[in-house]
């Protein structure tokens, strides 16, 4: 049964506590936090102070996606802020294996994110150490983009790779996920679904969250 990780990038930060409470009531399983530095991706979002504040107001696991250059510089800071999962991009660091080991040394789950054009071969020498693989179905940096159809096969192939190796890895998908395509994404093998704008654009966050949960749980 797939789980839901709403992306707070699309939230109204003036009403963040209230919106998180509605997500919880709607059945969200995680909270997805996109950290952007304006270098690795052309946008700036938020950092450890926001994550630390969020940690104080929720019991949901914090699924932290670092879209930043040289993430190894800040791993401990994000762990201290309350991250339960930390996902990095292979292109953002010279020594990916070392970064994965650093994350895991703090008792936090380690993930690697694959951009739309990143080949699955990039996982070959690190996959046995991963807790999560995040497939980006849009180019990272901005919310509200459309799902890239070619990524469907990538999700399917990643699922097959995990299953062939009998690994306990969460397969997460992020980008352009909506009520009308989320079932297909789950059927392709996704375990964890990130949804941003298609939840937060709705005036009834709790209902919208529960609608997603109903679809991905069946």
From TrEMBL:
A family per Pfam: Ribul_P_3_epim
GO BP term, example: pentose catabolic process
EC number: 5.1.3.1
Enzyme class: isomerase
One GO CC annotation: cytoplasm
GO MF terms, alphabetically ordered: D-ribulose-phosphate 3-epimerase activity; metal ion binding
Reactions catalysed: D-ribulose 5-phosphate = D-xylulose 5-phosphate
Keyword Cytoplasm among record annotations: no
Free-text cofactor note: Binds 1 divalent metal cation per subunit.
Binding site for a divalent metal cation: 32, 34, 65, 174
CDD domains reported in the protein's UniProt record: RPE (cd00429)
Cofactors named for this entry: Mn(2+); Fe(2+); a divalent metal cation; Co(2+)
Entry binding sites for substrate: 7, 65, 141-144, 174-176, 196-197
InterPro entries, per database record: Aldolase_TIM, Ribul_P_3_epim, Ribul_P_3_epim-like, RibuloseP-bd_barrel
Catalytic residues (positions): 34, 174
Family according to the record: Belongs to the ribulose-phosphate 3-epimerase family.
Name of protein: Ribulose-phosphate 3-epimerase
Organism of derivation: Tissierella creatinophila DSM 6911
Origin organism lineage: Bacteria, Bacillati, Bacillota, Tissierellia, Tissierellales
